[in-house]
């Protein structure tokens, strides 16, 4: 695909040498700075000055003036010219002889340095030596040899010879490598080692051998079948070959373009994709060359410049043709044209943004997204393509000059709903990708508002997460949109985020009360959770009645699930809440349970109130026709409350329990009154629950003195063995089970006194055996303790004797080691190291106050 990369401009319209009648024709030329040197077919070297002139309309012309000429006498064509500005010399190849001329007066150098028998030569643009006042060249001789020279102002210094299998027709050099076109093939020569690598065969009669250095150790060769072949110094090709026209006579390179000339055209090819970009008609061309980025082309009598079209214009032309990839490839290489880094980055980002909108308009969304992100486009440029998606009060205006010509997505979709949906899906995905990244910095509100509107249309399940977590959505733009699509729960969340709690609750209560459906709304439980964390207690009471009427058990969580760090409020004092909840029986029970069991408030009225409510619930179930399972659960809760709490009014509850023969509850209450015998008689005689009686003794002896447990078990045994009980025979088995229990504790002597005389030893054998073992164990343990105490007493006596062994004499002359005062009373302190002090001067009995030495506690 074509693009205008160069423009042909006349540099020297007609070369005038000796006269108009002279049949002088251009053979070669070289440009060095503002100087142009021309070699002719009749042995002249002509010197012109040349300067570019920029006109107001941007057109460039050249101003030239002839400076002089030189006739080289031999009357043979000047085959090759090469200027060396560092030496002020021109190297001229004429009549197979390489000579040096002065750049300014074109006179030969005094020393007459020359090389004869030369077929061609080439300057080494990547010299091995770094002397700035010399030039390295490679000379191909008409014999089978190349020579390397260092050129100075007045001489050609020979460095080395390299023999070849054939004569070299054309050479190119880079560092130590020489690429040569021989009479039958191209080859690569390592001048250090002399190693020759064959590349591919050629027929000089069919194609013109051409070698052009492209980059470090890389050359472009004119190959068979009109192919330009890239070759490295290693003899391999790292780029695809380039197809150009037949009959190519000259090649030059200015990044990223390669220009090839034949008899009719100059074709321009890109080194990036090897494709032809431009064809410039030009007949009769004899020379084409690049000189420090400038390209000149010559016919027999005229010289032209190929001026590059600015990269920006080329890229914009490609973008206008929607050739995005070519434009980007060209833009990436613009920094190799001498452009500053800052200018390049600014230009490249804008080109990426333009390319992104082109990809966007062609529905290539993946490529568009990548380019948008790489170019850090102002996200509002994208959102503005979607009508009404930007906040209404935004002050955004599109880029000037514009990045695109798109009005909006309606223009792109052409009323096709599927295409419009695809564009909206792209925007949603793109905004989700960049949200929270540096690309979104400064545009949080615009991004979140656009996302909210997109979610409201097609993804309501994502609204809650967007609004709840650090959203930038504002009320002005979003309320109407959410109401339009009936996203009422999201609307409530938005009000909540902006502190409009009353409006939020109004929306949620409307959702609960009405038949409107919002799949994302969790229901009444969500409202309760919100109220439970609401800091505005006045507003909270406005909705408590409504919630409790809907669900008492759920509504009471408004009071029980408050934040742990919430400040104490008069409006939420427990007394206030309890008084308010009297109208809601289940709620008040749940709240009292919260106060008693979770908050563990030790106030008699709460404990008594809860116990009374439990009792009333049990009595109500007993009077009604409720299931036994419900009654058992209610009584279990009552018994748990009576057992764990010590703060309720026992007598009040006991009176109610007696009235309805709640024996298990009465037993617990008697235990609270320390009337254990009554409690045990109820458990044994009324309930006949012997396990419960045994457990009663264990539970009621917890945290009491050691003998308390024995007294309770003796009391239980007395109940079992009570001779006044009519059915005492039925209690023999429970009594024996109690005696043999591993949990029960007894005084064996008192047990034997209680037992009836009629019981045999065999019946009591298990109890007696255990009692004997326990007694023997206790006896042995006592002896061990006594002996250990005796041993410890002996150790103490020994330590005391050792302390008394050394006498301490306290006289009027002896002074305290700390305060240096006399001892006025017989009390003193002596440390193990012999230091003696007053009692009040010994701050720490384990540390010597004089030396600071630490003594262990055992040696005090």
From TrEMBL:
Repeat (TPR) residue spans along the chain: 485-518
Domain spans labelled CNH: 23-295
Major location category of this protein: cytoplasm
Intracellular or extracellular location(s): Cytoplasm
Pfam families in the record: CNH, Vps39_1, zf-Vps39_C
UniProt-listed InterPro entries: Clathrin_H-chain/VPS_repeat, CNH_dom, TPR_rpt, Vam6/VPS39/TRAP1, VPS39/TGF_beta_rcpt-assoc_1, VPS39/TGFA1_Znf
GO process terms (BP): autophagy; endosomal vesicle fusion; intracellular protein transport
Protein's recorded name: CNH domain-containing protein
Organism encoding this protein: Candidula unifasciata
């Amino acid at each position: 695909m074509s693009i205008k990369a160069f423009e042909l401009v006349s540099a020297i319209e007609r070369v005038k040498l000796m006269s108009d009648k002279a049949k002088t024709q251009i053979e070669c030329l070289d440009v060095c700075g503002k100087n142009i040197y021309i070699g002719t077919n009749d042995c002249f070297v002509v010197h012109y000055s040349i300067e570019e002139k920029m006109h107001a309309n941007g057109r460039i012309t050249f101003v030239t003036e002839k400076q002089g000429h030189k006739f080289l006498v031999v009357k043979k064509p000047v085959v090759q010219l090469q200027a060396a500005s560092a030496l002020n010399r021109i190297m001229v190849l004429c009549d197979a002889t390489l000579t040096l001329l002065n750049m300014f007066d074109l006179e030969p150098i005094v020393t007459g340095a020359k090389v004869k028998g030369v077929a061609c030569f080439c300057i080494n643009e990547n010299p091995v030596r770094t002397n700035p006042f010399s030039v390295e060249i490679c000379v191909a001789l008409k014999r089978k040899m190349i020579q390397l020279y260092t050129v100075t102002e007045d001489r050609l210094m020979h460095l080395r010879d390299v023999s070849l299998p054939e004569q070299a027709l054309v050479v190119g050099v880079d560092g130590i490598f020489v690429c040569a076109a021989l009479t039958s093939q191209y080859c690569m020569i390592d001048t250090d080692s002399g190693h020759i690598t064959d590349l591919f065969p050629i027929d000089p009669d069919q194609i013109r051998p051409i070698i052009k250095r492209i980059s470090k150790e890389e050359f472009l060769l004119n190959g068979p079948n009109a192919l330009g072949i890239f070759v490295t110094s290693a003899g391999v090709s790292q780029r695809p070959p380039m197809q150009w026209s037949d009959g190519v006579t000259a090649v030059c390179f200015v990044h990223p373009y390669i220009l090839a000339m034949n008899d009719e055209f100059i074709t321009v090819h890109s080194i990036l994709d090897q494709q032809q970009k431009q064809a410039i008609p030009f007949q009769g061309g004899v020379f084409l060359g690049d000189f420090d980025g400038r390209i000149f082309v010559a016919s027999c009598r005229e010289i032209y410049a190929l001026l590059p079209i600015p990269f920006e214009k080329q890229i914009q032309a490609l973008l206008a043709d929607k050739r995005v990839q070519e434009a980007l490839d060209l833009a990436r290489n613009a920094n190799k044209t001498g452009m500053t880094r800052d200018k390049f980055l600014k230009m490249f980002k804008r080109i990426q943004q333009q390319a992104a909108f082109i990809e966007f308009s062609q529905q290539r969304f993946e490529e568009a997204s990548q380019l948008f992100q790489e170019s850090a486009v102002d996200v509002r440029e994208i959102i503005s393509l979607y009508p009404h998606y930007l906040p209404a009060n935004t002050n955004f205006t599109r880029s000037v000059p514009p990045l695109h010509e798109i009005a909006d997505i309606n223009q792109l979709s052409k009323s096709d709903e599927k295409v419009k949906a695809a564009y909206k899906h792209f925007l949603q995905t793109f905004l989700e990708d960049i949200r929270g990244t540096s690309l979104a910095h400064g545009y949080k509100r615009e991004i979140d508002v656009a996302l909210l509107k997109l979610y409201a249309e097609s993804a309501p399940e994502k609204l809650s997460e967007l609004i709840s977590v650090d959203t930038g959505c504002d009320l002005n733009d979003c309320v109407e949109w959410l109401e339009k699509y009936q996203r009422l729960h999201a609307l409530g969340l938005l009000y909540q985020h902006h502190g409009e709690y009353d409006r939020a609750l109004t929306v949620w209560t409307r959702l609960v009360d009405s038949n409107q459906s919002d799949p994302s709304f969790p229901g009444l439980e969500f409202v309760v959770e919100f109220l439970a964390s609401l800091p505005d207690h006045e507003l909270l009471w406005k909705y408590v009645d409504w919630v409790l009427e809907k669900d008492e058990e759920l509504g009471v969580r408004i009071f029980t699930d408050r934040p742990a760090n919430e400040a104490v409020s008069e409006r939420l004092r427990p007394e206030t809440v309890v008084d308010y909840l009297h109208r809601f029986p289940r709620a008040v029970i749940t709240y009292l349970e919260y106060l008693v069991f979770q908050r563990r408030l030790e106030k008699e009225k709460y404990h008594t109130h809860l116990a009374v409510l439990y009792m009333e619930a049990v009595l109500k179930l007993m009077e009604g026709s409720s299931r036994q399972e419900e009654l058992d659960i209610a009584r279990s809760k009552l018994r748990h409350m009576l057992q764990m709490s010590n703060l309720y009014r026992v007598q009040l509850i006991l009176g109610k329990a007696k009235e309805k023969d709640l024996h298990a509850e009465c037993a617990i209450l008697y235990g609270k009154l320390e009337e254990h015998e009554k409690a045990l008689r109820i458990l044994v005689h009324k309930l006949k629950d012997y396990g419960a009686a045994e457990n009663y003794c264990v539970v009621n002896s917890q945290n009491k003195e050691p003998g308390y447990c024995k007294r309770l078990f003796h009391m239980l045994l007395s109940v079992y063995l009570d001779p006044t009980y009519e059915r005492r025979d039925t209690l023999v088995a429970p009594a024996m089970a109690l005696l043999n229990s591993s949990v029960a504790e007894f005084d064996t002597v008192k047990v034997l006194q209680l037992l009836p005389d009629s019981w045999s030893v065999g019946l009591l054998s298990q109890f007696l055996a255990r009692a004997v073992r326990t007694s023997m164990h206790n006896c042995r343990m006592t002896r061990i303790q006594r002996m250990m105490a005796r041993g410890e007493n002996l150790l103490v006596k020994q330590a005391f004797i050792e302390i008394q062994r050394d006498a301490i004499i306290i006289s009027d002359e002896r002074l305290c080691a700390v305060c240096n005062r006399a001892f006025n009373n017989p009390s003193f302190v002596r440390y193990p190291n012999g230091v003696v002090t007053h009692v009040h001067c010994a701050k720490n009995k384990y540390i010597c106050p004089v030396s600071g030495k630490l003594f262990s506690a055992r040696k005090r």
